[in-house]
């Protein structure tokens, strides 16, 4: 398979050069089964499992029998904390548990590779030469997104965008934190769910090199 070429843009949205994608990583294959498995594990691992209810033995009170067993004409009751009573315990309620799952590293890498190929196939994959802002003002970052012609929603906000970098400095964090639709991450830390959950994927040339090294099995 011949390597695919993509234009590289600067922060003003002008094409400055082209880059050939690594055919080992960008081979056009999208493995849906692996993506499903990885996303399922990722979402399961986000669950805290902290929901907790008390059984009749854990609710305070109810140690004394409310009335004698026979002779009152009422139903027999052993405790005021019976699940049938108000303020009683809960039957089969949730208790803290661990929802986390494990998945082999090789499958995680294949899923990320498939997610990147999917973005490339959708023409939602943009490479930039570098990303540096003159100041920590949010308007500078908004200008950058406008230059790259990132699509907007009906309310005027940018569609979900993921920016992958090789390093993140303090100025960059301050400039980008107020843009709700923009998420930034390091190329070495990104994962399949994050890539699939965005509309546009923007990455620097250096971040792309990091991904290539990481994804070669």
Query: What's the order of the H and E elements?
Result: EEHHEHEHEHEH
CATH class of the largest domain reads: Alpha Beta
SS-based structural class?
alpha/beta
From the spread of the alpha carbons, the general shape counts as elongated
User: How would you name the CATH homologous superfamily of the largest domain?
Assistant: Ribosomal protein L4/L1
Mean pLDDT: 89
**Straight-line distance between termini:** 18 Å
- Helical content class: 25-40%
- Strand percentage lies at 5-15%
From the 3D coordinates, which CATH architecture of the largest domain would you assign?
3-Layer(aba) Sandwich
Total number of strands = 6
Spans with pLDDT under 50 lasting ≥5 residues? none
How many domains?
2
Question: Rg to the nearest angstrom?
Answer: 27 Å
- Give the oligomer, counting copies of the same chain as homo and different chains as hetero: single chain
Order of neighbouring strands in the sheet with most strands: 2-1-3-6-4-5
| Largest β sheet strand count, sense and barrel closure | 6 strands, mixed
> Please, how many helices?
6
CATH level-3 fold name of the largest domain:
Ribosomal Protein L4, Chain: A
């Amino acid at each position: 398979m011949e390597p695919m070429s993509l234009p590289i843009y600067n922060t003003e949205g002008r094409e400055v050069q082209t880059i050939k994608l690594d055919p080992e990583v960008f081979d056009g294959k999208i493995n849906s089964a692996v993506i499903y498995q990885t996303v399922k594990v990722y979402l399961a691992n986000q669950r805290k499992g902290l929901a907790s209810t008390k059984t009749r033995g854990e609710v305070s009170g109810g140690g004394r029998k409310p009335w004698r067993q026979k002779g009152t004409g009422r139903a027999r009751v052993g405790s005021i904390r019976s699940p049938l009573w108000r303020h009683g315990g809960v039957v089969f309620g949730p208790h803290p548990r661990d929802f986390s799952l494990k998945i082999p590293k090789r499958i995680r890498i294949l899923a990320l590779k498939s997610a990147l190929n999917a973005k490339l196939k959708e023409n939602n994959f943009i490479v930039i030469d570098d990303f540096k802002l003159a100041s920590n003002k949010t308007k500078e970052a908004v200008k950058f997104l406008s230059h790259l012609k990132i699509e907007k929603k009906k309310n005027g906000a940018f569609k979900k965008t993921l920016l992958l970098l090789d390093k993140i400095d303090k100025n960059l964090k301050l400039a980008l934190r107020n843009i709700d639709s923009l998420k930034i991450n390091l190329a070495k830390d990104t994962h399949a769910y994050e890539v699939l959950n965005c509309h546009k994927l923007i990455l620097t040339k250096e971040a792309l090199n990091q991904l290539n090294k990481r994804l070669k099995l």
